[in-house]
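Pasting as-is:
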Amino acid sequence: MRIKKSISLIIIATVYVIALLSAYVFIHLSPGRSIFLNALYADLLATGIVFLFSIIFNNSSIYDPYWSVVPFFILMYWIFSAGTGFTAPVILLLIVMILWGTRLTINWSRDWEGMDHEDWRYKKFRTKFGRLYWLVSLGGIHLFPTAIVFLGMVPVYYFVTAAPTTINGLYLIGFAIAMGGTVIELTSDEQLKSFKKEPGKQGETIFSGLWKYSRHPNYLGEIMFWIGMWFFGWGAGNIYFWTIIAPISMILMFLSVSIPWMERKILATRPQYQSYMDDVPSLLPIKFRKRK
């Protein structure tokens, strides 16, 4: 029996409330541990609980909103535990993180069809790995993104624990880049939705708006958000410049995993997409000359 989308969203909300409450209880039962490790272990625990519900409902897409939901709670835990307070720099970061997370979560809820829908990539994993699917789901679909996002939050941790009180240039740059990335994600997603609604556009490739300059402007916006988070960390002190490994890891994930997967799928059904790939850059709207 098909589950209504409204009921599906209630189920998802319930799963995440259980996962977050479990993480909260775990933290408060673990006194004496650093707030960094507490957040990491609680993050892994919450991921494990979401994974259990993925098994129960036989749908790994239950994990999909985790990416945009959890960072806010990690940030709030660090702010209160470190005693940083809501200073001007902290409010600056909070604003952009709330806007980014809310927008991304709403976008997911609009596109998700319900408990009967599972991401096409996960379906391919089921076919490819058979009995090993749930092991692959745990490592590749649940734990890997959790690790990448937590790594992306490392600069934020150093920013918060540095207890910033005044806004500096790097904080402003970080805010501008992260906010710009959020706007780019919003704009590109809305442009794609509008394009798909146009008559006769089913199966066609969008070649307008931001998509005229980048094949994946939504991914570009996401990368920009995490680069912005790094600037906040760097702004807390030059000693934290090394946390640049966080956005670099994010970039590598999109370039080596997300984009190739997506484009292989598109090419399998739309061979004409190759001409679009030849004309439009993958991420940055910059064309490099190919060697002959």
